[in-house]
Write a structure and sequence with these properties.
Blueprint lengths: L13 E6 L7 H8 L7 E4 L2 H13 L4 E6 L1 H17 L6 E6 L5 H5 L5 H9 L6 E4 L2 E3 L2 E3 L1 E5 H15 L10 H19 L5 E6 L4 E4 L5 E6 L4 E6 L2 E5 L21 E6 L4 H6 L1 H6 L7 E6 L1 E14 L2 E13 L4 E4 L25 E2 L1
Parallel strand pairs: 1-2, 1-3, 3-4, 12-19
Antiparallel strand pairs: 5-18, 6-7, 6-17, 8-13, 8-16, 9-12, 9-16, 10-11, 10-15, 13-14, 14-15, 16-17
Helix pairs in contact: 2-3, 6-7
Amino acid sequence: MLPSNTSRHRPERTAVLLNANARQVGPRVRAALSSLVPADNLFFSRDHDDAHRIADAVMSRGFDTVFTGGGDGTFVSWVNHILDRAETHDAPAPRFGVLALGTGNAVAEMVGAGRPVDDLRRHLSGELLPGRRLDLVTFDGRRTPFAGLGIDAAVLNDYSWMKSRLGGSNGRLAAGLLGYGLAIALRSAPRQALQRKPTYCEILNSGSPAWRLDASGERVGRAIDRGELLYAGPCMMAAGSTAPYYGFKLRAFPFAGRRSGTMQVRVVTRIPVPFLILNARRIFSGEFAHPGLLDFEADRVEMSFDRPVPCQVGGDAEGYREKLTLGIAPRSVELLDYAAGARVATPGSWPARPSAPTPATLRG
């Protein structure tokens, strides 16, 4: 049996787990973090084998809090490695702190992460940072805050393509938000605009009763029972999330996390690409309104497409798929919340948007 990490008779034990391949984990960051935590508590992972060994060390040494440094993909990787071991040994999992050291920082944005060194120093100084629970979504046996199919994953693929073509002296041009903008403008948007036949999608409720959500995130209509369709019709994107953000402060799921044990399922049916581009600001703020934007609340769904479409899991491209099952994981995680007062807007505070079809089963 692994040692418990809940003892009251010893000081708080903190580990820092870094993705050594992350662009922002450079010499200055390493030196700064090394000055705050003992060398034995600072871990660098370069590959899958490293991650396995580090996760074993974290659980066997009984750390109370683990900080992950990298993007959302790094967070997802560490959470899966550590929770797998916690479940295998029937041991409690540590709390997680998130250091914003990646390109996509959706989880970091959710908890109000700032400068990584400052956030870590606050915790180590003894400041009592509150915790918040984060439900996770299962995907092929893995856990993640969000995953989906469609144009969002296509942008990730195009961003990777841009970085590979504009490396070297032009690497900065293809990095970060500018790189994503170029990927959308030069590849994703033109491809979507020229698509002759829209992708057809069916989303089946395979869990507890699901609900359609209105413009304020409240349930409307009757419950959608197990075995019924949430949606069937043309689809540009279908995704599920328990976190409000997608990175770069894009509030892609403004209603995520409002009810424990559920995820927000967002479907973009058919919206003209020029209209999406013109409304980029409202899309980022979560205020975007259009009848082709549909929201649901569910704990398990099965998505089927009429042809392979791009897939993303936790902000990392996962190739192409025709089917995807998303469900709420049995075990949540506790995150340190750097900005406990900054919460997702309460129901009713979001701007109203045009009404969309309300039957439980929607057909395009």
